[in-house]
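Tokens for Dienelactone hydrolase domain-containing protein. Go.
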Amino acid sequence: MSGPQCCENPPTLSPSSGVGSVIEFGGLKSYVSGPSDSKLAVLLAADVYADKVAAAGFYVVVPDFFYGDPYDPANEEKPLLVWKSLHEPAKAFEDAKPVIEALKSKGISAIGAAGFCYGAKVVVELAKSGLIQAGVLLHPSFVTLDDVKEVKAPLAILGAEVDKLSPPELVKKFEEILLSKSEVGSFVKIFPGVAHGWTVRYKLDDEKAVKSAEEAHQDMLNWFTKYVN
């Protein structure tokens, strides 16, 4: 989403995919899935694994922070930098606040959030603000050392060995900062042999890629199970 690797091998979408539904939630068109009476919720920013997380018992919300305007590499009139200027993560963070309030108003008592690529910046802002109980960043983009220094909620970071946006050297610095914050739980892992975007953009016939993505998804679920309760 913030680099070519996130736009490769896009998912095949169909009107019947998913077991949830699309509703307006917190002022945004959102995909929701999972038990509506759950007291535990996860906000995803923003990708396609809501049903997997919901199957673990969470009420999952995937807000459309792009307002129906996802990045399209084929659209020459709106190259990446132009598109990003119209969809800054700071705006998505502000848009996430009413979603969090809507979750609380329906009786949710604990909220986690996971951000893939672009969405990681949104989630780290939520973790800095104290609005969530735990966060997970998967191949993050735009996240800085200063961001990590200000995190208040337990944070897991899942990085790729090949990643120009968050190279292993930067992820290791994130880890050093988190380890120095004894009051904040943390988990940092760099996945070998994978590139930025690997958890959401992989070929189903690539056994190694599927295994690595599934491992990351399980790490994410384990983190939420531990801290969103």
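The first strand starts at residue 21 and ends at 25.
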